């Protein structure tokens, strides 16, 4: 059965304790393996009302993985194997704009990638593909997530450009000022290559960012400290859970097809006779729809 013919199944990538206390019905923890290596953690599956959810802790249990250590390919592959139709990322972000204050939520619509050394594609030698990433997040899911966060009582910004940095250190003041000049609105360490891989996996992807700090661009203030970030994250944790519950209530009974469902339709560049059989086998979940 094509995923467009099924109901909603929302994958959620977030903090290690996100699924706890969310009111998940029929909850069960499942270990899912991936040919791309070990995912960050086992997934937690269940329902909120009539909607299926699968949760994955991006940084593993107890936040044991740094941003550069996250196996983004395995995480996306595992969620695809679980049958998710759409993917919501919940992330802590710094603000590069005065109006996006700590405690606010931002539905990200654009991305700038400043990461390096991370595996950014499922494809490569033996099977080349080029997907469109002009609009890296899904407008439909982003709008629903923004409405859900408002319903949970949050102040929400409907758009924002996220610059993804390598980390794990926070920015210098010069970098923070440069990103502002580039037009970035918020800053984080995990949206890339997560967004790239979600698109290759034909998963509509949205980022609901939780602003924790003002980064380092405000000259009259001290730079961001981890303790400050963690404090705001803890304060927002229940609001994030409430937003997920609101999202479940907002989703239409039937999931209409998304153009992202067929992102690979004309993306494969390698002739069938030249494709690496081993890579084709690894891509069974991600690209099986177009590989046959």
Summarize the structure in words.
With 292 residues, this protein is an alpha/beta fold. It has one domain: Rossmann fold (3-Layer(aba) Sandwich), CATH 3.40.50. 28% of the residues lie in helices and 22% in strands. The protein is built from seven helices and eleven strands. Strands 1, 2, 3, 4, 5, 6, 7, 8, 9, 10 and 11 form an eleven-stranded mixed β-sheet that branches. Strand 9, helix 3 (173-182) and strand 10 (186-188) form a beta-alpha-beta unit. Helix 2 (139-151) crosses helix 5 (226-250). It is globular, with a radius of gyration of 18 Å. Residues 1-5 have low confidence and may be disordered.
CATH architecture: 3-Layer(aba) Sandwich
Residue-averaged pLDDT: 93
Q: How many angstroms separate the termini?
A: 14 Å
- The unreliable regions are 1-5
What structural class do you assign from the helix and strand content?
A: alpha/beta
Radius of gyration: 18 Å
User: What string gives the helices and strands in order?
Assistant: EEEEHEEEHEEHEHEHHH
- Outline, from the CA principal axes? globular
Total strands: the figure is 11
Helix content: 25-40%
Layout of strands and helices, then pairs:
Layout: E1 9-14, E2 25-30, E3 43-48, E4 51-57, H1 72-81, E5 86-95, E6 105-108, E7 110-114, H2 139-151, E8 156-157, E9 161-165, H3 173-182, E10 186-188, H4 191-200, E11 205-213, H5 226-250, H6 277-282, H7 284-291
Parallel strand pairs: 1-4, 1-5, 5-11, 6-8, 7-9, 9-10
Antiparallel strand pairs: 2-3, 3-4, 5-10, 6-11
Short synopsis of the structure:
By secondary structure, the protein is an alpha/beta fold. The chain contains seven helices and eleven strands. It has one domain (3-291): Nucleoside phosphorylase domain (Rossmann fold).
